[in-house]
Structures are given as structure tokens and as C-alpha cells.
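TL;DR need C-alpha cells for one chain.
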Amino acid sequence: MELEKWEEEAKSMVEIQVKRRTIKNSALLEAMAKLPRHLFVPEGLRNLAYADCALPIGEGQTISQPYIVAKMTELLDPRPGDKVLEIGTGSGYQAALLATMGCIVFTIERIAALAASAKKIFEELGLLDKIKINIGDGRLGWPEEAPFDCIIVTAAAPEIEKAWVDQLAEGGKLVLPLVVSFNVEQLVKITKTKGKLEQKHYDYCSFVPLLPGVKT
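>> reply
TL;DR here they are.
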């Protein structure tokens, strides 16, 4: 994909798929327009990288639809300098987007091959100084680096893990696709205030499931 073409497609993606669906965070919109999403998609699917859909990335995983990435990021409302924990590196697009917005990202991936692929892209984009990757079980979080201002989970979780709540800073925000009933998932935002959790539900969605353990 030629440079000029992807820039045009990224801008069109933001204008048509994201802004028209009421996403208003200007820093987020700017970051999505300048981040080359096609780098995070397998070569055979790069002509669809900016399309309004999720795409397979191998290992049974997907890169989420641009709108869903934008919605979750807007709910998270990260600020430059925020320390963000991501559960599920996947393609690396979400972590790269947060880093482009000025966050310091700690991302956990259970599948070693995906973590390695994402790391190469981060290096190509000059983002390794803002992103640290760990291969492990995301349900456990990253206690050595806690607390986090924000936590984002990029796979459907059957429950809100205690480790995530414990590692969330005071005033911190957790955004995740939560399984709310059989085969039904919904985006949920949790805010931690004085040790108490405020929970709000948003869009219905569909994600790959959050799985335990590590796959090497």
C-alpha cells in the first residue's frame, strides 16, 4: 500500500466510521488518522485494513473494528503520561494508538508469536520507548508495574478479575468487553473512586474470548 493511499484511507476511516458515530476525543481522532493501521494487518488483508470490520490476524485472534477501538479508547479517556495496562496485545494496534496519544503502555499477550510480531511493528514505528510487552496470563495483570491509571481489556472477559481492580490506581478507569449473559457481551467502564467501583454499560459487542495461560 502506497504512503499517500494509506493516509487518505486513514483520514476517511476517521471521518466516516469514527466521527460520524459520535466519537469526539480530538487527540484520539488525530492519532487514528496518523497511525498506519495496515502495518498491523496480515499482508493478504491489507487492502481491508481501513474497512469497517474486524479482521483475522492469525492464531485465532482479530484486530477489532476501528469504531470499537475508538469507542473503548474514548471511554478510557487516557491522558498524555498516563500509565496504561493492556490485557491482550493482539495485533498491537490498540497499544500503538495509546502510545501515539502519549501514554506509557504495558501490554500483556499470552501468544508469543503475536507478541513478537507486535514488537517488530512498535520498533518500526519508533514506539518501543513507550510500550513494554510481557508474555503471560492477562488475568493476573502486571503487579510489578502497578498501579495503573487505565486498564483496557481487548478480549471478552467472563468476569472482572480482582487483580485488575487491585492494580487500578485511585481515580483509575477500566474498560472491557464483559460477558453479561450467555453469548452476549457489552462494553463496560469501571471507575475506582475511594476504593469503590462505579460501573457503566455501553455498546454491545463481539470479541474473541479471554483465555488463561500462555501459548508459546
